[in-house]
Amino acid sequence: YIDVLQAFVDGLAIARDRGHDLSAIHSVASFFVSRVDTSVDSALTTIGTAEAKELLGKAAIANAQLAWGAFLKFTQSDQWMPFAASARPQRPLWASTGVKNPDYDQAMYVTSLIGHPCVNTMPEATLLAASAVAMPDVDTMTPHLTEAQEVWTRLESLGISHSRTVEALEIAGVQQFIDAWVALLDAVEKEMASTA
């Protein structure tokens, strides 16, 4: 994620040098949320110990909170300061915040991942569930940054690697986007051929 933030700042420098209005540039960095729990919970269920069961449903929120911590640190860094007055930071976007496990509270990702200027994309069922609860008007991530690191430390002690987990999910997610793009191009090509 730090590489993504650095690439954004590098892009801002190019835009500034070319005379663009930096305040008009909007950008997000997307993080899958529920997919992290789906992957990690599967491994925890296989492990099956009491400690593993205690960690069910905690990896995704902890992962997003760690990303939030990196975002906060970056927006106070020497790399960001030259742009702070004229540009908008690249916002974290929590994607796939609908729970996949029916035993989990439908709004747990939404209520746990509140922070300005984050973006949250969710399915309608999650939106309805979140609208039915009292949403805190505060940052619900920063107070839990130490706890988030502890969750991943405990997961690592059980043999579940943070870096390998998120890398595998990133690779799979990128491949899904590639497959969808190729399918779209194929559909357009077929439609064009049928109307020619």
Mind explaining what this structure looks like?
This protein has 196 residues and is mainly alpha-helical. It has one domain: Aldolase class I (TIM Barrel, Alpha-Beta Barrel), CATH 3.20.20. 57% of the residues lie in helices and 6% in strands. The protein is built from eight helices and three strands; from the N terminus they run αβαααβαβααα. The chain has helices spanning 2-17, 34-47, 50-54, 59-74, 108-112, 124-131, 145-157, 162-195; strands at 28-32, 91-95, 119-120. It has a three-stranded parallel sheet with strand order 1-2-3. Helix 5 links the parallel strand 2 and strand 3 (119-120). Helix 2 (34-47) crosses helix 4 and helix 4 (59-74) packs across helix 7. It is globular. The N and C termini lie far apart (45 Å). The relative contact order is 0.14. The mean pLDDT is 96.
Mean pLDDT: 96
**CATH architectural type:** Alpha-Beta Barrel
Q: Could you describe the largest sheet, including whether it forms a barrel? A: 3 strands, parallel
Bin the helical content: 55-70%
Which stretches are poorly predicted, pLDDT < 50 over at least 5 residues? none
Strand % is 5-15%
Per CATH, the class reads Alpha Beta
Please name the fourth-level CATH homologous superfamily: Aldolase class I
Label this structure with key terms.
mainly alpha; single chain; 3-stranded parallel β-sheet; TIM Barrel
Kindly summarize this structure in a few lines:
The chain has 196 residues and is mostly helical. It has helices at 2-17, 34-47, 50-54, 59-74, 108-112, 124-131, 145-157, 162-195; strands at residues 28-32, 91-95, 119-120.
